[in-house]
UniProtKB/TrEMBL annotation:
Keywords for this protein: NAD, Oxidoreductase
Organism field: Halobacillus trueperi
One Gene Ontology term of the molecular function aspect: oxidoreductase activity, acting on the CH-CH group of donors, NAD or NADP as acceptor
Annotated UDP-glucose/GDP-mannose dehydrogenase C-terminal domain residues: 308-400
Name listed for the protein in its UniProt record: Nucleotide sugar dehydrogenase
Keyword NADP part of the UniProt annotation: no
SMART domains in the record: UDPG_MGDP_dh_C
Domain of life: Bacteria
């Protein structure tokens, strides 16, 4: 039996996928409401294909519990935030989940950390904790790190098709756990040491952050001198070895905007490029704020409540708002006492911020300036409804005349 600890964006689909592939799975979360909902068939977030997968997993006998199970295989998919001041990883969720597992596990159990962790976390925090509890690593407990690469919005497909990395102290145990993931993973699985698995995961997200920062910096340069950044990127990308990403209103989510900070926190003297990229991406909501100010001035609009932000999620077609550029922008506005801006997101059903509209047409009726912060399919399908507004399109999805870009 596999006991998966933490049933969030990563743990839940992973648990369902293992169950669908025929493994006996118990999903454990200390959030009682979440466990109760899952038992009733209610899912905590939207994700393409998740309902069907949930049903298949239930048919195959998956159960959900607040209890940690006595078994031989554990997967930990708990949060790994960073500490705002020091930028270092906060291991408290991993250590707490680990201790709960150590309370009940079989001798010789494999503990697989799926959470993204900064390089060295296992050596610095996890091993000492296991030893402090009197267990011998390699005999009583086998340690592994199998970081996850899936992206919200395409999780189910990517669980099956992304290649994976498994870091293990003992290659034989690594190969055994690789066999477990091969139950559903159709792609390559590399077995390596734990340090390399930790580092490669953080490096992947840092690479993306840096590349997005380059596009964002270009957007600022082009805006300053009235050049079309999208046209310039399109042309530059025709070069066979150039592949510039698209600029945007900022970087959010639980991964790309978080993981590079682990390296900055641990290697402050060596991370000039990484830190600069983080700063550029974090500055984008302020850049959007400046663009809104320009448009308000140009049209002599003085009332901020005439501005509407479309999209609260951190990316298109999902309901996850963590670290989202819109939330970052609202924070900036708040600092400047710009209260009352309207907000709408078709995917975010619960009320996350003040002045959040539940109805798109009502939202449009109240505003004169529409700021597209997220390129949900919903807005792409409703472009005809927004043509009468002054539109600031930070996602480059509108092709009609008079649209303002980043
Ligand atoms: N969300 C993503 O797109 C994504 C992608 C790749 C990797 N990751 C990594 O996966 C990890 C999990 O992220 P997430 O987005 O799934 O987080 P999440 O916040 O959606 O879910 C975490 C869950 O863990 C539960 N939990 C926390 N501590 C627990 C404990 N001690 N015992 C039982 N349950 C506990 C919480 O109640 C929550 O339901 C993080 O390290 C993250 O960086 C996330």
């Amino acid at each position: 039996m596999i006991n998966i600890i933490g049933l969030g964006y990563i743990g839940l689909p992973t648990a369902l996928m293992f169950a669908k592939s025929g493994e006996v799975v118990v999903g454990t979360d200390y959030n009682t409401d979440l466990v109760n909902s899952l038992e009733k068939g209610i899912l905590p977030f939207e994700e393409e294909g998740l309902e069907e997968l949930h049903q298949k997993a239930l048919n195959n006998g998956i159960t959900f519990s607040t209890e940690y199970q006595k078994t031989h295989t554990y997967i930990l998919a708990v949060p790994t935030p960073y500490i705002k001041e020091s930028k270092k990883l906060d291991p408290k969720y991993v250590i707490s989940a680990l201790n709960s597992v150590l309370d009940v596990c079989d001798k010789g159990a494999s503990v697989i950390i799926e959470s993204t962790v900064s390089p060295g976390t296992v050596d610095k925090y996890v091993r000492p904790e296991i030893e402090r509890r009197g267990y011998v690593i390699g005999e009583d407990i086998h340690l592994l790190h199998a970081p996850e690469r899936i992206i919200p919005g395409n999780m189910i497909y990517e669980l099956e098709h992304n290649s994976r990395t498994i870091g293990a102290d003992n290659i034989e145990i690594g190969e055994k756990i690789k066999g477990l993931y091969l139950n559903f993973c159709k792609a390559d699985i590399v077995v390596t040491d734990i340090r390399s698995a930790e580092m490669s995961k953080v490096v992947e997200n840092t690479f993306r952050d840096i590349n997005i920062a380059f596009a964002n910096e270009l957007a600022k340069i082009c805006q300053m001198d009235n050049m079309d950044v999208y046209e310039i990127i399109r042309i530059a990308n025709m070069h066979p070895r150039v592949n510039i990403m698209q600029p945007g209103p900022g970087v959010g989510g639980h991964c790309i905007s978080v993981d590079p900070w682990f390296l900055v926190g641990d290697y402050p003297d060596l991370t000039n490029l990484i830190l600069t990229a983080r700063k550029i991406n974090d500055s984008m909501p302020k850049h959007v704020l400046g663009r809104i100010r320009d448009i308000m001035r140009e049209h002599n609009i003085k009332d901020i409540s005439k501005v509407g932000l479309y999209g609260l999620a951190y990316k298109e077609d999902v309901d996850d708002t963590r670290e989202s550029p819109t939330l970052q922008l609202l924070e900036r506005m708040d600092e400047h006492l710009a209260f009352g801006v309207k907000v709408f997101d078709p995917h975010v059903k619960n009320s996350v911020v003040d002045y959040q509209s539940a109805n798109f047409e009502e939202f449009l009726n109240e505003i004169e300036i529409l700021v597209i912060m997220v390129g949900h399919n919903h807005i792409k399908e409703n472009l005809n409804l927004i043509k009468s507004k002054h539109v600031l399109d930070t996602k480059n999805i509108c092709t009609f005349e008079g649209v303002y870009k980043l």
